[in-house]
Amino acid sequence: MNRILGFLGPQGTFSHEAAQSYIDSRVKNEPMNKAYLLKDFYTIREVLLGLKNNEIDEAIVPIENSLEGAVNVTLDILAEEDGLYIVDEHIIPINLNLVAKEGTLPKDIKVIISHPQPLGQCRNYLNDTFQAIVQLEESSTSKAAQRVAAGDGTYAAVASSIAAKMYGLQILNSNIQDAKNNYTRFVVLSKAMKNKTGRDKTSIVFSTENRPGSLYKILDIFSLWDINMTRIESRPAKNVLGQYIFFIDIDGHINEQDVSDALTMVRRKTSFYRFIGSYPTFDCPYDV
Amino acid sequence: MNRILGFLGPQGTFSHEAAQSYIDSRVKNEPMNKAYLLKDFYTIREVLLGLKNNEIDEAIVPIENSLEGAVNVTLDILAEEDGLYIVDEHIIPINLNLVAKEGTLPKDIKVIISHPQPLGQCRNYLNDTFQAIVQLEESSTSKAAQRVAAGDGTYAAVASSIAAKMYGLQILNSNIQDAKNNYTRFVVLSKAMKNKTGRDKTSIVFSTENRPGSLYKILDIFSLWDINMTRIESRPAKNVLGQYIFFIDIDGHINEQDVSDALTMVRRKTSFYRFIGSYPTFDCPYDV
């Protein structure tokens, strides 16, 4: 039976590009006798609920962009939902384009539409180039391109070149992101944990007691066990302003003794703790 | 001469409410012989550039919400711009309402408009109640309410009750935010630093060398000096994926010897460092 990989649709989104790129890299690295099928969902939450409800075997969702930072909705669901594990990560370059209907001139544009993440990624460009223009949020870059195609020539979208091609739009300006190094890291989730590969990292989420130095004490545990922390991200605990949950990535696999021992101690010293997965560190073909 | 306080407009936004509430609390706590005038700007960036260019004396901007987390654009500008100091903080409760034209029924609604922050703050409510509805981003909740008032009765906005009143809209549902404790923390900025009050906190931003344990070593400094860290927030460094800058709040004023000594050491041990201000901790009248 084929494996089904869910992603944030519709066709033509950067998530679609990432899903295809991930499948290509897996087929290349480990020839499989199972083919992958793709299934698109309307929101990131639906992708992950689809995995929980066994509609799909794996889910690929964005977790972090090099310009705009964490994808909050993904982090929040990972903190809420039990039994979903990160089994892989995948990084793709994001090239943003300003696209419009054939014949639209920059001076005609009154409204710019996109997903909030890409709007944030070219915030300076948009503010400098189109000062008093309305920015509209859509659920995906692809939907934004679709709306521009159906519009009256005063709309433009920030979208992928694939989406421009799909909806017959012209690219007015390419690579409009504020910094050149625009990459998005995706994580692949499954209901089964991933075995050790020898080049792994581990993700956890926890909250500490609201006492002075409580986060420091947790980081102290990693220091004691000589475990390298590669990332820390905080999100509001959502009950009280000024209380946070922390997402931490460390080097190593949960099945390694040091990692296992350190995480046992972290679990005991935190008021909330969840293991989100051990998975191979992405072997990046580009210079991120 | 009157002092001018800049905020994210237009009239009727939560930022407007915060600006008015801040002025009221200042007048109450320390009777002033100068009156405050309010000036609205189109974006958070413009508010802060207005302060930089001496168009206003102080700026009030949102920095953190108890549900949706950090306000990224505010943090990014604080990291970029030199010579702007936080001189105060102010917290207000955020009550979100679903508002529409008189006579609109929930089943008529096809599009929901708001600023991305409030859309995120009631994400679960919107996803559960209006599954396949388009969400549009506007530059403010007030602008969103204005568009709904001008619309054809298939639009609704997530907005303040003030905005609903301003644009003659009915409130279909109130307090629709996903968690009851919805508060936004604002910071007040000035070009002059604030004197010690005895109940202060200090904000800094820095990046560390990309070496194992480098963040831990910085937190170690605060631990050595017995300084309590109340908040840590990371943002992407924007040059390389996986590199971050950190915003940290600690108890105490830069003019206290311990704080000053610790920050001198932090400055020496970081590749980028900026002091953002020492200011009185908000004396909260509500149970946040």
TrEMBL record, chains A, B:
Top-level taxonomic group: Bacteria
Database matches in PROSITE patterns: ACT (PS51671), PREPHENATE_DEHYDR_1 (PS00857), PREPHENATE_DEHYDR_2 (PS00858), PREPHENATE_DEHYDR_3 (PS51171)
Annotated site location: Essential for prephenate dehydratase activity: T184
A matching Pfam family: ACT
Any Gene Ontology biological process: L-phenylalanine biosynthetic process
Catalysed transformations (reactions): prephenate + H(+) = 3-phenylpyruvate + CO2 + H2O
Occurrences of domain Prephenate dehydratase (ranges): 4-191
GO MF annotation list: prephenate dehydratase activity
Record pathway: Amino-acid biosynthesis; L-phenylalanine biosynthesis; phenylpyruvate from prephenate: step 1/1
EC numbers for this chain: 4.2.1.51
Gene Ontology CC: one annotated term: cytoplasm
NCBIfam families per record: PRK11898.1
PANTHER family cross-referenced by the UniProt entry: PREPHENATE DEHYDRATASE P PROTEIN (PTHR21022), PREPHENATE DEHYDRATASE-RELATED (PTHR21022:SF19)
Designated name of the protein: Prephenate dehydratase
Protein encoded by which gene: pheA
